[in-house]
């Protein structure tokens, strides 16, 4: 054991890649930390205890082989580490950047429980695959056999759709991906700011899939110019992986006036501007925080993306209003810490009552909250603390309360597509098939707004279900021909 590169957690302290200083990083949208050097990655991987029951893998939605690729990294066997990490994940360097590891793998690391600080799993995962791209180890998908006689249509080029496309192409199917936007990637491109995920990281993934023979149809108007039934007739199977884009609205007096905007509209405008697109609503100031007092309402990761974007756009002040306390917020604690370093003020246990202004918002009237008994989710429910109202000046208010599904039966002009009472697509969870034969669904449009890593997991799972269904369909089609030949 003396020669083992592992179990170094007692003598080697926890370290993350060094972040750029806050005053420097708020001047641009580049990632705030560049990543480990090889020696540092090997050192940090060597802190893994190689425990018999790896809670890190158990609490990863993908059940990544984390202890195994940590050991390979510590031994300098990076190509093997890369191959193992991609055995379970189609986007390891993306998940390494944006997963809330503090709630998943790292938060459940055994040496974290022992007081030595978790292994910095996400940063090492990012390092492994970034190295693989630099070394040319990442290659297009090579189908195991030719099943091009069967085609699959996938609606949605976000993480669930792209993951399913990769696996189905690997099985040899002719895969076509349709998306409403002019770039593939979904919220990876348009929703997540560059300081968390630079766009070329997503672009190279898309290009790899295109180089693998996957066909992309961007700017597709499903249910409009391109009827849903046309796609059903065109392909042997369909996957709906549209995600959820409908913003949850605040119900309060004054909410409809100018200057109160939806989080996704705001983030898409910022990301498009960064990509070089013409964005009139950014140019005229509607979706631009420059020189404004900004109040963001919400406590999830989208709210954190908004406050940190507003800082970089040159807001004069940025405040985040959240109805629960810090310990009960749904967003990543690391993102909160990053935001605080960058000058964001958090107004905990507060909720909006109304919005003042006429030609445009001028202030948020709010009340202090207190946490009462636990609700159905197990979290303590916020309730108004009487007589605690206060006022925050604001020129721009961003609503970041989460997302609900769009009305897909209406959007696709397909009323027979069954939905749940929450508006998500209803599926048979054994087959992941919707109420329509041969139409499958996966990702947020089934589970509701969730993490990218869960979308990747769902894309992986639905690809296997579709593969099984398509093989059975091919056998059924071949049986009559075989009987005639006999």
UniProtKB/TrEMBL annotation:
Keyword Nucleotide-binding appears in the UniProt entry: no
Domain Dihydroprymidine dehydrogenase: start-end pairs: 25-136
Pfam families: Fer4_20, Pyr_redox_2
Alphabetic keyword roster: 4Fe-4S, Iron, Iron-sulfur, Metal-binding, Oxidoreductase
Source species, domain of life: Bacteria
InterPro entries to which the protein is assigned, alphabetical: DPD_II (IPR028261), FAD/NAD-bd_sf (IPR036188), FAD/NAD-binding_dom (IPR023753), GltD-like (IPR006006), Helical_ferredxn (IPR009051)
UniProt entry tagged with the keyword rRNA-binding: no
Organism: Sphingomonas morindae
Domain called FAD/NAD(P)-binding: residue spans: 152-459
Protein name according to UniProt: NAD(P)-dependent oxidoreductase
């Amino acid at each position: 054991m003396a020669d083992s590169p592992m179990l170094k957690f007692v003598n080697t302290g926890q370290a993350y890649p060094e972040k750029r200083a806050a005053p420097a990083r708020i001047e641009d949208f580049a990632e705030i930390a560049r990543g480990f050097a090889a020696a540092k990655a090997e050192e940090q991987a060597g802190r893994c205890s190689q425990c018999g029951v790896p809670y890190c893998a158990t609490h990863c939605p993908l059940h990544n082989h984390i202890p195994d690729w940590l050991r390979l990294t510590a031994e300098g066997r990076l190509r093997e580490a890369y191959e193992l990490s991609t055995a379970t994940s189609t986007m390891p360097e993306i998940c390494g950047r944006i997963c809330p590891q503090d709630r998943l793998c790292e938060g459940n690391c055994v040496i974290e429980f022992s007081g030595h600080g978790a292994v910095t799993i996400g940063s090492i995962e990012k390092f492994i695959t970034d190295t693989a791209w630099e070394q040319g180890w990442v290659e297009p998908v090579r189908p195991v056999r030719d099943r091009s006689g069967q085609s699959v249509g996938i609606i949605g080029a976000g993480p669930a759709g792209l993951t399913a496309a990769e696996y189905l192409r690997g099985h040899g199917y002719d895969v076509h991906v349709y998306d409403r936007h002019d770039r593939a990637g979904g919220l990876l491109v348009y929703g997540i700011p560059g300081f968390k995920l630079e766009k070329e990281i997503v672009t190279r993934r898309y290009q790899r899939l295109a180089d693998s023979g996957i066909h992309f149809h961007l700017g597709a108007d499903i249910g409009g110019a391109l009827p849903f039934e046309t796609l059903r007739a065109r392909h042997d199977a369909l996957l709906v992986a549209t995600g959820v884009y409908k913003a949850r609205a605040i119900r309060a007096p004054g909410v409809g006036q100018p200057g109160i905007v939806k989080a996704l509209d705001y983030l898409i405008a910022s990301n498009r501007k960064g990509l070089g697109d013409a964005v009139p609503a950014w140019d005229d100031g509607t979706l631009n925080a420059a020189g404004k007092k900004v109040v963001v309402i919400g406590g999830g990761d989208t709210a954190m993306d908004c406050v940190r974007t507003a800082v970089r756009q040159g807001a004069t002040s940025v405040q985040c209003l959240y109805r629960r306390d810090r310990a009960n917020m749904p967003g990543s604690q690391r993102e909160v810490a990053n935001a605080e370093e960058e000058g964001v003020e958090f107004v905990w246990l507060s909720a909006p009552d109304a919005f003042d202004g006429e030609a445009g918002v001028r202030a948020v009237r709010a009340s202090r909250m207190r946490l009462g008994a636990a609700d159905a989710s197990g979290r303590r429910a916020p309730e108004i603390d009487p007589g605690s109202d206060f006022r925050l000046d604001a020129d721009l208010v961003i609503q970041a309360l989460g997302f609900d599904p769009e009305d897909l039966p209406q959007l696709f002009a397909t009323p027979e597509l069954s939905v749940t009472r929450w508006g998500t697509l209803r599926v048979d969870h054994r087959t992941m098939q919707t109420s329509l034969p041969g139409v499958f669904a996966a990702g947020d449009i089934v589970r509701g707004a969730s993490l990218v890593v869960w979308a990747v997991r769902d894309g992986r799972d639905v690809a296997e279900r579709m593969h099984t269904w398509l093989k059975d369909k091919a056998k059924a089609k071949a049986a009559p021909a075989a009987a005639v030949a006999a």
